[in-house]
């Protein structure tokens, strides 16, 4: 079936903005807790309580059977890591991916944090991944195409010696957690649907130090790099405006 991309009203965009800002606040709230010794379960509980205290619900909890409120993906885990008893160690990197459901609208954002002193390689990967997200966002303007996002991200990542995960991408978002379209982080300029003012979607590149291949663990959620090397991710929820893109998940 052809993808059907919903054009949001101003009221919808305001609703998604409120939810996305809350998700961004959760990341800010959790940052000082990202320390050696804290378990990913504890991080999950802190985020869960903060989301509830702010009148929202964590979108992942129960989503297609996902058992926790956020995703915590450590080191070689690419995405969809399930919080558990693992306690963070010096030098780890952890992707915390938060999605909130507030007044009927979802907002989705993810950041990579370093634990204590991290390696130069990890720091460089994080910086490049953040730049990939930024460059992806810069492609968004009416008249452009979704393929422009992936083309720009893929070029930047590969020019810096990194690889891009192809199997997972961004997504439309609004009243549903995952809406059309799928937003690839690799691709060709000028391909895919055209950006139109009022579209709202996420960009969330997963960038690997080693090869792009991934494996799905037996829990059917956790995605890891096949070579066991580090992966980083950043995500924003963005809206297409008359002249470009507006980041909704920032505070
Ligand atoms: N937040 C993730 C995304 O960016 C999706 C997580 S789905 C879950 O799309 F079920 F694993 F939570
Ligand atoms: Co997302
Ligand atoms: Co997310």
Q: How far is the N terminus from the C terminus?
A: 37 Å
- Global shape: globular
Residues in helix, %: 25-40%
Task: Characterize the main sheet.
Answer: 4 strands, antiparallel
User: What share of residues are in beta strands?
Assistant: 25-35%
Spans of at least 5 consecutive residues with low confidence: none
So, the CATH homologous superfamily? Answer: Creatinase/methionine aminopeptidase superfamily
Helical segment count: 4
- The CATH topology turns out to be Creatine Amidinohydrolase
Mean pLDDT across all amino acids: 98
Comma- or semicolon-separated keywords:
Creatine Amidinohydrolase; binds 2-amino-4-trifluoromethylsulfanyl-butyric acid; 25% strand; three-stranded antiparallel sheet; 4 helices; 251 residues; 15 strands; binds cobalt (II) ion; 27% helix; four-stranded antiparallel sheet; alpha+beta
Summed up, what is this model?
This protein is α+β, with helices and mostly antiparallel strands.
Give the SSE map:
Blueprint: H1 10-30, H2 40-53, E1 57-58, E2 71-74, E3 77-79, E4 93-102, E5 105-114, H3 120-138, H4 146-159, E6 163-164, E7 170-172, E8 179-183, E9 200-203, E10 206-208, E11 214-216, E12 223-225, E13 231-233, E14 236-240, E15 245-247
Antiparallel strand pairs: 1-4, 2-4, 3-12, 4-5, 6-10, 7-8, 9-14, 10-13, 11-12, 14-15
Helix pairs in contact: 1-2, 3-4
